[in-house]
Amino acid sequence: MQPRELLRLWDEAESIWSQRQDDDAFHGYVSADFEAIHHSLRKLRKRTHTFLEWGSGLGVVAIMASRLGFDAYGIEVEPELVALADELAERFAATPTFAVGSFIPDDFDEQLANGDEFHKTVVTDRDAYGELDMELRDFDLVYAYPWPEEHGVFRNIVRTCGAKHTLLLRYDAREGLTLSRPAKNRPEASR
After folding, report:
1. For the domain that residue 110 is a member of, what is the CATH number?
2. InterPro entries from the entry (predicted)?
3. Which residues pair with 171 in a beta bridge?
4. How many domains is the chain built from?
5. How far apart, in Å, are the Cα atoms of 13 and each of 24, 32, 73, 85, 105?
6. Is the dihedral of CA 4, 6, 9, 14 positive or negative?
7. Reported pTM
8. Residue 25 domain-assigned?
Protein backbone atom coordinates (compact mmCIF):
# COMPACT_ATOMS: atom_id res chain seq x y z
CA MET A 1 0.00 0.00 0.00
CA GLN A 2 1.17 3.47 -0.79
CA PRO A 3 1.47 5.90 2.14
CA ARG A 4 -1.53 7.91 0.96
CA GLU A 5 -3.68 4.76 0.77
CA LEU A 6 -2.54 3.67 4.25
CA LEU A 7 -3.55 7.05 5.66
CA ARG A 8 -6.95 6.70 3.99
CA LEU A 9 -7.42 3.24 5.55
CA TRP A 10 -6.46 4.49 9.01
CA ASP A 11 -8.64 7.59 8.66
CA GLU A 12 -11.61 5.54 7.49
CA ALA A 13 -11.26 3.16 10.45
CA GLU A 14 -11.06 6.15 12.81
CA SER A 15 -14.18 7.63 11.18
CA ILE A 16 -16.12 4.38 11.63
CA TRP A 17 -15.03 4.29 15.30
CA SER A 18 -16.03 7.93 15.85
CA GLN A 19 -19.48 7.36 14.38
CA ARG A 20 -20.18 4.03 16.09
CA GLN A 21 -18.19 4.02 19.33
CA ASP A 22 -21.35 3.83 21.43
CA ASP A 23 -22.61 0.68 19.62
CA ASP A 24 -22.43 -2.49 21.74
CA ALA A 25 -20.13 -4.16 19.18
CA PHE A 26 -17.48 -1.49 19.82
CA HIS A 27 -17.48 -1.96 23.60
CA GLY A 28 -14.00 -3.54 23.70
CA TYR A 29 -12.63 -1.95 20.52
CA VAL A 30 -9.27 -0.18 20.77
CA SER A 31 -7.07 1.19 18.01
CA ALA A 32 -3.32 0.61 17.89
CA ASP A 33 -0.28 2.31 16.34
CA PHE A 34 -0.99 1.23 12.77
CA GLU A 35 2.11 2.92 11.35
CA ALA A 36 4.44 0.97 13.68
CA ILE A 37 2.57 -2.26 12.99
CA HIS A 38 2.80 -1.72 9.22
CA HIS A 39 6.55 -1.15 9.55
CA SER A 40 6.93 -4.41 11.52
CA LEU A 41 4.81 -6.35 9.04
CA ARG A 42 6.97 -5.13 6.16
CA LYS A 43 10.09 -6.39 7.94
CA LEU A 44 8.50 -9.74 8.89
CA ARG A 45 7.08 -10.41 5.42
CA LYS A 46 10.36 -11.89 4.21
CA ARG A 47 10.29 -14.68 6.78
CA THR A 48 6.58 -15.35 7.39
CA HIS A 49 3.65 -16.18 5.12
CA THR A 50 0.47 -16.88 7.11
CA PHE A 51 -0.83 -14.09 9.32
CA LEU A 52 -3.59 -14.04 11.95
CA GLU A 53 -4.99 -11.00 13.77
CA TRP A 54 -6.58 -11.88 17.13
CA GLY A 55 -9.52 -9.67 18.07
CA SER A 56 -9.41 -8.16 14.60
CA GLY A 57 -12.07 -5.49 15.15
CA LEU A 58 -12.32 -3.51 11.91
CA GLY A 59 -9.57 -5.67 10.42
CA VAL A 60 -7.11 -2.86 9.72
CA VAL A 61 -4.02 -4.93 10.58
CA ALA A 62 -5.23 -7.96 8.59
CA ILE A 63 -6.00 -5.66 5.65
CA MET A 64 -2.47 -4.23 5.78
CA ALA A 65 -1.03 -7.76 6.00
CA SER A 66 -3.11 -8.90 3.03
CA ARG A 67 -1.97 -5.96 0.93
CA LEU A 68 1.65 -6.76 1.85
CA GLY A 69 1.20 -10.27 0.42
CA PHE A 70 0.50 -12.30 3.55
CA ASP A 71 -2.11 -15.03 3.52
CA ALA A 72 -4.07 -12.98 6.08
CA TYR A 73 -6.86 -13.86 8.52
CA GLY A 74 -8.66 -12.22 11.40
CA ILE A 75 -10.74 -13.57 14.25
CA GLU A 76 -13.28 -11.34 16.00
CA VAL A 77 -16.01 -12.22 18.51
CA GLU A 78 -18.37 -9.41 17.35
CA PRO A 79 -20.24 -10.31 14.11
CA GLU A 80 -20.98 -6.64 13.40
CA LEU A 81 -17.26 -5.81 13.43
CA VAL A 82 -16.51 -8.73 11.10
CA ALA A 83 -19.10 -7.41 8.63
CA LEU A 84 -17.52 -3.94 8.80
CA ALA A 85 -14.03 -5.46 8.37
CA ASP A 86 -15.19 -7.33 5.26
CA GLU A 87 -16.57 -4.08 3.80
CA LEU A 88 -13.39 -2.16 4.63
CA ALA A 89 -11.21 -4.88 3.09
CA GLU A 90 -13.25 -4.79 -0.10
CA ARG A 91 -12.92 -1.00 -0.35
CA PHE A 92 -9.14 -1.31 -0.06
CA ALA A 93 -8.79 -4.25 -2.49
CA ALA A 94 -7.56 -6.58 0.25
CA THR A 95 -8.46 -10.24 0.64
CA PRO A 96 -8.10 -11.26 4.28
CA THR A 97 -10.50 -13.88 5.59
CA PHE A 98 -12.38 -12.93 8.74
CA ALA A 99 -14.19 -15.34 11.06
CA VAL A 100 -16.60 -14.80 13.93
CA GLY A 101 -15.72 -16.44 17.23
CA SER A 102 -13.00 -16.66 19.83
CA PHE A 103 -9.30 -16.66 18.97
CA ILE A 104 -8.69 -18.87 22.03
CA PRO A 105 -8.44 -22.45 20.75
CA ASP A 106 -11.07 -24.71 22.31
CA ASP A 107 -8.32 -27.10 23.39
CA PHE A 108 -6.34 -24.40 25.23
CA ASP A 109 -5.97 -25.29 28.90
CA GLU A 110 -5.49 -22.04 30.80
CA GLN A 111 -2.51 -22.37 33.10
CA LEU A 112 -3.75 -20.34 36.05
CA ALA A 113 -1.01 -21.74 38.25
CA ASN A 114 1.52 -19.40 36.64
CA GLY A 115 -0.68 -16.34 37.15
CA ASP A 116 -2.00 -16.08 33.60
CA GLU A 117 -5.69 -15.36 33.35
CA PHE A 118 -8.19 -13.48 31.25
CA HIS A 119 -9.54 -10.20 32.56
CA LYS A 120 -11.55 -8.62 29.71
CA THR A 121 -11.21 -11.01 26.79
CA VAL A 122 -14.44 -12.84 25.97
CA VAL A 123 -13.79 -16.52 26.68
CA THR A 124 -17.30 -17.98 26.39
CA ASP A 125 -17.56 -18.28 22.60
CA ARG A 126 -16.34 -21.29 20.61
CA ASP A 127 -13.14 -20.75 18.68
CA ALA A 128 -13.27 -19.62 15.05
CA TYR A 129 -10.48 -21.86 13.74
CA GLY A 130 -13.00 -24.36 12.32
CA GLU A 131 -14.60 -21.58 10.30
CA LEU A 132 -11.15 -20.79 8.88
CA ASP A 133 -10.44 -24.52 8.37
CA MET A 134 -7.13 -23.94 10.16
CA GLU A 135 -5.53 -24.34 13.57
CA LEU A 136 -3.36 -21.91 15.48
CA ARG A 137 -0.27 -23.95 14.60
CA ASP A 138 -0.95 -23.22 10.91
CA PHE A 139 0.06 -19.57 11.33
CA ASP A 140 3.58 -18.16 11.06
CA LEU A 141 2.70 -14.80 12.61
CA VAL A 142 -0.02 -13.85 15.10
CA TYR A 143 -0.74 -10.20 15.94
CA ALA A 144 -2.57 -9.25 19.15
CA TYR A 145 -3.29 -6.18 21.24
CA PRO A 146 -3.91 -7.75 24.68
CA TRP A 147 -5.45 -5.98 27.62
CA PRO A 148 -2.58 -4.94 29.93
CA GLU A 149 -3.10 -7.86 32.34
CA GLU A 150 -3.33 -10.46 29.57
CA HIS A 151 0.07 -10.40 27.84
CA GLY A 152 1.19 -13.54 29.71
CA VAL A 153 -1.88 -15.60 28.83
CA PHE A 154 -1.61 -14.57 25.15
CA ARG A 155 1.99 -15.81 25.07
CA ASN A 156 0.83 -18.98 26.82
CA ILE A 157 -1.80 -19.63 24.14
CA VAL A 158 0.82 -19.45 21.41
CA ARG A 159 3.27 -21.48 23.48
CA THR A 160 0.82 -24.32 24.02
CA CYS A 161 -1.25 -24.26 20.79
CA GLY A 162 0.98 -22.60 18.18
CA ALA A 163 3.70 -24.23 16.14
CA LYS A 164 7.32 -24.15 17.22
CA HIS A 165 7.97 -21.47 14.58
CA THR A 166 4.89 -19.28 15.32
CA LEU A 167 5.81 -15.66 16.07
CA LEU A 168 3.66 -13.47 18.31
CA LEU A 169 3.65 -9.73 17.62
CA ARG A 170 2.04 -7.95 20.58
CA TYR A 171 1.16 -4.29 20.87
CA ASP A 172 1.11 -2.43 24.16
CA ALA A 173 0.17 1.25 24.34
CA ARG A 174 3.00 1.94 26.82
CA GLU A 175 5.74 -0.29 25.44
CA GLY A 176 4.95 -0.50 21.73
CA LEU A 177 5.45 -3.70 19.76
CA THR A 178 7.10 -6.87 21.06
CA LEU A 179 8.00 -9.85 18.89
CA SER A 180 8.52 -13.27 20.47
CA ARG A 181 8.51 -16.96 19.63
CA PRO A 182 6.74 -18.39 22.71
CA ALA A 183 6.80 -22.04 21.59
CA LYS A 184 10.41 -22.20 20.37
CA ASN A 185 11.51 -24.75 22.97
CA ARG A 186 8.44 -26.98 22.66
CA PRO A 187 8.68 -30.08 20.47
CA GLU A 188 6.72 -29.76 17.23
CA ALA A 189 3.36 -31.55 17.34
CA SER A 190 2.75 -34.09 14.61
CA ARG A 191 0.17 -33.12 12.04
Report:
1. 3.40.50.150
2. SAM-dependent_MTases_sf
3. 177
4. 1
5. 17, 11, 18, 9, 28
6. negative
7. 0.89
8. no
